[in-house]
Amino acid sequence: MKISELFKSGKPVLSFEVFPPKKDSSVESITAAIDELAQLRPAYISVTYGAGGNTANTFTRDIAAHIKNDCGIEAMAHITCVNNSKEEVLTVMDSFAEAGIENILALRGDINPNVPPKTDFRHASELITFIRSDPKYDNIGISGACYPEGHTEADSLTADILNLRKKVEAGAEELITQLFFDNAFFYDFREKSVIAGINVPISAGIMPVTSKSQIERMVTMCGASLPQKFVRMVTKYESRPEALIDAGIAYAADQITDLLSNGVDGIHIYTMNNPYVARRIVEIVGKLL
Ligand code: FAD
User: DSSP string spanning the chain?
Assistant: First the structure.
């Protein structure tokens, strides 16, 4: 089923994101975590796509196939185009389709300063146009990424939203946001997107923070702002790892409660492959969905 169908019920859609294991590991190394996440019955689980070559991307397919075919949960496989030619995209798309995967998150991917990008696609919208031009993939649902604080390369939030509109016009049927820790950014972004004519569902990406190093890594990667309230929490509990996990879960649950109260279309939890944290959050907000 296309993910966009899930939004038609009018109820907020809960989804999870997982990432594949390192390339010298195996899919089986994370199957137990995936199975536990699946028991929480999210509407779908998405699987990230590495820039790390064929093995990593085979893992993306195999994990998404496991979610869909063995766990009975709708799966979304991410795919990036920055390091893929058109031919390579078709190969990956066909392997997804053969594995029964019906949904993708179409991304450009981050540009690695040490690896010149391939030139077939400059933006995710071009990847979406390319996939949509082939009737073979008509039954594949396509989602796209969006950035409540603006993408790090964009001149302004407005410029980024105008580019985002091109992604939706190309055929993205749902959007998932980058993680954020201050809901005000999401509400401002959502309002501006509607004014710009973007009328597809937008799921809010929420990352429960469980360690200080995780926050530092994430903020370096995606540039999310850290509100004072959040910084105070991390500073207070950074030397007590178990307390920080509880505080991170409480913070994420509070963000989600506020988003649900304000009519968000969906909540996409960046689970970091951690079923314990996802379970605790679902216990708190599950009845609000
Ligand atoms: P684009 O939509 O192409 O946007 C990139 C930049 O180009 C933006 O600044 C935008 O404003 C600009 N732009 C877009 N279109 C145009 C245009 N037509 N003309 C001029 N400028 C334009 N990365 C991975 O490697 N693997 C993953 O699995 C992965 N999953 C992700 C999941 C989510 C929910 C999110 C939010 C991000 C994910 N990323 C992943 C990171 C993503 O690849 C990076 O953020 C990347 O830098 C941008 O990808 P994009 O698809 O948003 O790019």
Answer: --HHHHGGGSSPEEEEEE-PPPTTS-THHHHHHHHHHHHT--SEEEE---SS-HHHHHHHHHHHHIIIIIS--EEEEEEE-TT--HHHHHHHHHHHHHTT--EEEEE--PPPTTSPPPSS-SSHHHHHHHHHT-GGGTT-EEEEEE-TT--TTSS-HHHHHHHHHHHHHHT--EEEEPP-S-HHHHHHHHHHHHHTT--S-EEEEE-----HHHHHHHHHHH-----HHHHHHHHHHTT-HHHHHHHHHHHHHHHHHHHHHTT-SEEEEE-TT-HHHHHHHHHHHGGG-
